[in-house]
């Protein structure tokens, strides 16, 4: 028997249970991974609360981790026991000592990336890859707005934007987080606790606003974000930290400047093994070159996953958080 985190009902962090668990043998196209580090992400809380529905209860939790291949299915040819791998997509259950998932959801880790780095960066880094490199055709000199710029995804976005020559305006929640975002590469910051976001965007862009706005907050910032998008610009709504955006009136997009809106997910960009590995390789190269530094801001034992999630949702974390089996 091994250990995992599971939940049998939806609710707050207290519904998470640390239990004995017997993982399945991998199917023909599956691999079992012995996790050495596990990523903590906001999307995990969506499954816990019921915003996103798990396949069935009780359910495992988490989609990101890194470790060694422990067993391979009969049809798997490109991976073998002992290979160093990381993953960010696949079935729930990464909050565990052992996790079984499809072989095409795994990427090989180069020697330059350790397990904690991989677990801290796979989901967030691949998210930034598709946001900055695929969702919009950004070019050097563009000015974009990015909410939660001092968080896990935002910390990577600040660095990647700087490397691309993109001027990122980071929205943060405190002076300390503003300093952090600037140190990581944000061109400017807006402290939402003390400043009017729309007004500051107009000041910083001399009234032009931003061709692209990245919003992971959702309900609370939807209208604000629309007001920060330049005419014919794009709002990229990629998260629901404050709750989902509902009841969208398409006519508002016309009123605010014939705007475009997209609600992307990583799964639709990394939709096959080749694209997933290519995206990961670009991410790993950015890390190896020193253009992106991966900071593990918090480490928790796997058994303390509830405490880790409570810290995440109360915005007490900086950078990435990993769980250690």
Notes on the structure:
- The protein has 325 residues and is an alpha/beta fold.
- It contains ten helices and 16 strands.
- It has helices at 42-49, 115-135, 152-164, 175-184, 197-204, 222-228, 250-255, 266-269, 273-288, 305-313, and strands at residues 2-7, 16-21, 30-39, 59-60, 65-72, 84-87, 98-102, 106-108, 143-146, 167-172, 188-191, 210-215, 229-237, 260-262, 296-301, 320-324.
- Helix 2 (115-135) packs across helix 9 (273-288).
- The longest helix has 21 residues, at 115-135.
Largest sheet entry: 7 strands, mixed
Q: Work out the strand percent.
A: 25-35%
Assembly context of the chains: single chain
Order of helices and strands: EEEHEEEEEHEHEHEHEHEHEHHEHE
How would you sum up the global shape?
Answer: globular
Alpha-carbon distance between the termini? 14 Å
Gyration radius (Cα, Å) is: 20 Å
Find the structural class using helix and strand composition.
alpha/beta
Record field, number of beta strands: 16
State the helix count.
10
Describe how the helices and strands are arranged.
Blueprint: E1 2-7, E2 16-21, E3 30-39, H1 42-49, E4 59-60, E5 65-72, E6 84-87, E7 98-102, E8 106-108, H2 115-135, E9 143-146, H3 152-164, E10 167-172, H4 175-184, E11 188-191, H5 197-204, E12 210-215, H6 222-228, E13 229-237, H7 250-255, E14 260-262, H8 266-269, H9 273-288, E15 296-301, H10 305-313, E16 320-324
Parallel strand pairs: 9-10, 9-12, 10-11, 12-13, 13-14, 15-16
Antiparallel strand pairs: 1-2, 1-4, 3-5, 3-7, 3-16, 5-6, 6-8
């Amino acid at each position: 028997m091994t250990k995992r985190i599971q939940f049998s009902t939806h609710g707050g962090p207290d519904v998470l249970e640390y239990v004995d668990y017997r993982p399945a043998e991998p199917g023909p196209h599956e691999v079992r991974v012995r996790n050495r580090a596990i990523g903590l992400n906001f999307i995990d809380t969506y499954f816990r609360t019921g915003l996103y529905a798990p396949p069935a209860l009780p359910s495992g939790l988490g989609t990101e981790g890194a470790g060694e291949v422990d067993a391979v299915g009969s049809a798997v040819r490109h991976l073998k026991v002992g290979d160093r791998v990381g993953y960010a997509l696949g079935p729930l259950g990464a909050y565990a000592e052992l996790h079984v998932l499809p072989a095409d959801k795994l990427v090989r880790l180069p020697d330059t990336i350790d397990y904690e780095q991989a677990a801290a960066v796979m989901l967030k880094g691949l998210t930034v890859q598709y946001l900055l490199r695929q969702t919009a055709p950004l070019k050097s000199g563009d000015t974009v707005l990015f909410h939660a710029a001092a968080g896990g995804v935002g910390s990577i976005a600040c660095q990647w934007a700087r490397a691309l020559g993109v001027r990122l305006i980071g929205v943060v929640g405190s002076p300390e987080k503003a300093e952090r975002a600037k140190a990581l590469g944000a061109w400017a910051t807006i402290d939402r606790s003390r400043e009017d976001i729309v007004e500051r965007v107009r000041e910083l862009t001399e009234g032009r606003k931003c061709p692209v706005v990245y919003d992971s907050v959702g309900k609370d910032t939807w209208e604000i974000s629309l007001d920060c998008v330049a005419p014919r610009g794009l709002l990229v709504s990629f998260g629901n930290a404050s709750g989902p955006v509902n009841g969208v009136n398409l006519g508002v997009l016309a009123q605010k400047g014939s705007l475009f809106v997209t609600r992307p997910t990583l799964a639709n960009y990394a939709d096959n093994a080749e694209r997933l590995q290519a995206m990961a390789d670009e991410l790993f190269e950015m890390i190896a070159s020193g253009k992106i530094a991966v900071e593990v801001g918090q480490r928790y034992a796997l058994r303390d996953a509830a405490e880790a999630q409570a810290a995440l949702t109360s915005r007490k974390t900086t950078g990435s958080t990993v769980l250690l089996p």
